[in-house]
Structures are given as C-alpha cells and as structure tokens.
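Re: the request from the purification team.
They wanted to know what the chain is likely to look like in 3D before they choose a buffer screen. I agreed to run a prediction and write the result into the notebook, where they can find it.
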Amino acid sequence: MPDTQKVYKVKGEKLVPVNRFNLEPAAPVTVLGKNVIGKRSVVVAHPVVQSIEMKKGIIPLFKTKKEYTPFIENVEQFNEGSKFKAHEDNRVQMGFPQIQITPYKQTLFYYENVFDADGNIKGYMGKVLVGYQLSKSRSRLQQNIDLSLSQATLQLKISDDETTLINGVIHHDSNYIEFNLKDEAVKIAFTNLITQIEDLQCSIDLYFEFKGYTEVKFRPIISLSPITALRKDLSKDIIKKANAQRKLKVSTLNFRKSNVIRAKAANVKVADKKVKMSLPKETETIVKSTYIYKHNQTLNFNLSSGLFKTLNNEKVEANPFRLNDVFSEFQQIYMTAFPFDTLTIYKSTLQPNTFLIVPKKYFIARTSDDFSPCVEISFFANVESSQEELSKVVFDFAIGPDFSGFDSAKLELELKRNRFLDDESDIRFLFPNDLPDAEIEITGNNLLQNATVVKDGKYYQLNYETESLRDSNLLFNALQNGISQYANLNFIYKEIKDSSIIDTNINKTIGNAIEASLDNDKKTITLENFSLSDCILSDMVVRDESKEVFFNQTFFQTFPVLKSSESKEITYDAINTLLDNRTLNSIELKYEIVEDIQKEIATQVSQDSDLRRYISVLIDSQPKEVERIQLDVEVVNSQSLFNFETLKEDLKDPLKRAFNFSFIIPGKQNSQNINYSIKYFDENYNLIKITTKSLNYSESATLRIPGLMS
C-alpha cells in the first residue's frame, strides 16, 4: 500500500506532506511526550513542521555573518557531543553549544506567605528562578548550532514514581526563566531542591528548536494542480527528479469557489474493492525540518548556600513547610457565564492563574495562513491487468476546540469578576494537549475511532486511511454535503475524566476568518475577511495598554455582513467614546461564518493510470430573461454526480462563461459517457427550459451550453 506520509503538496515555494496543515505547532514537551522525561539529551524532528525546499533562497549582496545549518544523518544515534557537517559547507563542523544553568542573581527559590482575613497563613506563593547561557562558536570551521529556546519545564517529584510539570516563563532579553508556584507546589519545589535523595530531586528541561537538513527516501508522489504547475517559482529540478522515477500522473480535483460555478455536491460511488498498490521506486532528496533539542539538568543545592529567600530578601535557613500526602493538581470550578455543555474549567492548585480548559465541542479547523478548511482527501489508484481501480482513500483533517480568542477574553474577564485569580500576573490557559501524561481516545464512530491522531498545539490532526471504498464514500459524501459525523473525544489525566464531542460537519468550521488591524495613530480598526465565506459580526472585545477591557455588542446589531475578501474600517470612538484617547493592544471578534464550504475542499488525486478526466464547459450568450443556469452532470461509469450553477451577473462577462471540472473514474470503463441536463431559470426561479444530452469524453472534452432560443 502507498505510504501517505510521502505524498507532498505545493505550499508557496515548498513541498509539504499532504497530511499537514499550517496550524499552531504543538508545544515541544507535548511533541516529545512523557517517554523522554529524565533523559539528559533528546533530539527529534518536529512531526508537523516539515518541508522540502523547492528553490534556493536568494543570497543577499552584503552579509555580515554567514549562517550555517546542520546536516543530520541519524537523529536516533546521537548525544550532546555529536557533530554534524554544515549543509552549506561540508568543511564546517557543527555541534550543540554547552548549556549552563545557574541560579538567577543569587536567588534560586523565593516564597511568601498568603494570609486570610484573620491573619492566619492560608497558603503560599513562590517561584524558582534560573539563568541560562549558551557557549559561543570556537572558530569559523567549528560552529555551534543556532538554538532558540521555545519552552522550559520544571519536573517536580511528588514521589519516586510520580512527577508534575511546571511551565516556565522565558525572559529572552535577560536570559532567565521564572517558574511560578503556589501552595503545595511551593512545598514540593523547596523539598526537591534541598533533598539529598536523588530519586526525589527535581530537574529542569529546556526545549530548543533549530533548523536542520536530512536526506530522506520517499516515493515522488507530488500532488500538483494544473495552475500550480505553471508557477515560475517551482523548482524544475525537483519536478524532473520526481518524474524521472515514475510514470505517475497526479492532479487535483478542486471544489474551491470560482467566479463562475458553485459546486453543490460531488458524489463518488464505487465498488468495495481491495487492490494491491504498485508504487514507483523510492528516491532520495533533502528535507528541511524543525528539530527539537531537549536538555535536562538536575537542580539541587544546599540550604546553606543562601539561594533560598523570602520577603525582604531574607535567607531561608530551615525548612518551613509540611507536605501533604494527598492533593489534587486541578480542581473544577463553575461559572454561570459558561454552561457545562460549552466548557469545563479546572483551576490549578500548583501554579497561580493557571486553568485547564476542556472545550465540549471540536470542529474542523481552518489554517492560520490562508484560512482554508483543514481537509485533504487523497485517492490512490493503479492499474492491474486491464482494470483500473482505486486502491486506497485517505482523509486528513484537523479538528480544533470551539474556543475562540473572543471566548478566551470573555473567560479572563469572568474569572476576574468571580475572584478566581490568585494575583495580578498573566492568566495561562492549558488545553488537554498541553499535558504530556494525558490520554486521548476517540470512540463512538467506527470510522473516526480508527484514525491516527497527532497532537498539534490545541488541535488534533486525524488521518483515516481505508481500502474500503464503501466506507470512504460515506465519509466523503458527509464532508461534501455538510452532514455531521459525530464521535466522542475522551480525555483522562490522573483523577480527571472528561469528554468532548467531535463534529466533522464541513459547514461548522472554526478558526480565524477575519483579520483585525489596529492603527493607534489614526484611531481606526480595519477588518478584512480572508475566507471564501461571508461573516456576520456580533461582538468585539478590545484591550488598552493598561489591560482594561471594552465590549460593544450593540454596535454590531446594524453592522453589515462582511463578505469574502471585503474589508471595512471602524473608528475607535464608534466602539466606545473612551477609546479615542487610548492606545489599544489587542482585539478579539465574535462572528458567524456563513459557509457553503463544499466549494472550499481541495481533493488530492494520486494515480499511476489515467483515472482522471477534465471537461471544459463553455456558456454561450443568453437572452435577458435568463437569470441563472443549472448544470447537472452524471458520470455513467462511476455514477459520480456534479451540480453547477451560474448566475446572471457572471453571464455578462465573456471571460466568466467558461470553466473546467474534473472527475475520477474509479473502475473499469464500461462506458465513457457523461449524461447532463441544462436548466434555464428566470428571475423568479421559474424553470423556462430543460435540455438533456450525452457526451462521450473519449472523443470530446468540451461541453457547450447553448443560448436559450427566444
């Protein structure tokens, strides 16, 4: 069977795996998982951020410093002393810099007592502070890998077989990390830092990201649309290299919106067959990826070192704490503004202002770059004897929580109103993906529960592969026609057991469809709709530089629909007259996407036989009484159905009276005909005329819609 991990699609000037979408990348600790805890050094390739460069970058005329990137031959066999050749110059040897972790400004641990109204100690607030330094390169031929610190975690040991993870705040400008603690975490950290028992000592993990090249073997199955293949910025060398290794024809069925057509449905009905796939030979190429380097170091110092301090910089000379044997890391809280069917909220008992969020609904997400829905459907086909058959269908899509930036701002405000905050520090929201020990399981759907799941930030990327074309037809038609497929997403973490509902209805996608830009000089807000669908705005929340929050739901009651590719400008004083003299820092929007999303699904077709056909549709000039034309097409061999509709305003432009569509022939060609009907409607949607015809696509690839005879 084909290895779908080796199918690539074109994104800008790079080839990326077809089952990857541009979303928020997962935190490094989530990528590596709990299996690497305690290991001193680990390097992995990021499972999401991966691409093949299609052309060399432009070298600037003046460069003050030459940059080098390591060429990694084997990620699995290395340690912190491993050496690599530079991709740009094999004479240059590269290695990991020495990493030094020390107490920050003579303070490792700091805490304060928290008192109740009667003056009794009710808890503690504290922090662990560490500085970090990276060694510099030795010489021009001995270069250090350029590391960027992306995450730091403190592994506290509750017992010899139980740990808890504390996320740190990285201060890049001062090269130090701050781990904020509260109550029981303060006690545990203090005990871990001074104990002489190695199994109870805490450690710090620093997660660095860096770019690297490696040589990989892959089968050159590259999905290209005819338009993309004409782009000048594509590397001819890579395409030629791929074509030289195969007799493979790859094309794209594209249901995106055009100026002429609106795709209503595209049904694929094929026999349930299993066919062995014959693939082209593997080839080698250079892949550029994001790598994660984890450095672990134990933190343990004598109490007499003077690094443990309390209020007024007084040194702690004796253990002031008494540990509890049993405690919960999270406690559930309740607020009427967020009903149980929308969100479950847990407050951390170890970190201040930290909350675990379990959204109750997950929908198909949109990419962060072009706001397109994260859905790819790949068909793999081959020739065996004289029969042409689809051998495998792969569905790749990403689901995300129904919890927008607007919801986050609203939740912050409600937490403050209900006095759930510990102090004035920043609020941190965790999702189930952020807990490496959390277990995730999909149940309740015999298709989705067999999918492979990859964590990607707060999203999940699902990959469902099937040789059963009957099952694939069910899921394909559900996606194309906006039919919901439900499943349970079960989440287990220690004593917490929670669940959410997955809904793969393509008309209910979530993600940022509108980009809002602030101009503090002109005192204006520009809203631009980058999606292919219209959006109805209903509310907005803005924050000024003092973090004061402003809402205005009334303003949007008369605000017009923001159409696709449309932008509008709003003045600050229209939202609130108090904003006219303020500097705004952030803005979040609440809106509904009015989707006809069938037009937004891109279907990748990978085949080694001629299983795809293009048909060009030409529309003749029409009389004034024709308001719209509907074209219904049936491919006899596969029983695939296509419905297209063009409106009067499109008929006025000769350039818009022509379009193409393509279809898959899933089996042996018993017939090479397509049957189609043309319906003409007036302005009241009354049917004026209907014409039924047939076309042999082996003889002609042109379907003409004649003008209505008066």
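For the purification team: The longest helix spans residues 405-417.
Please add any questions underneath this entry.
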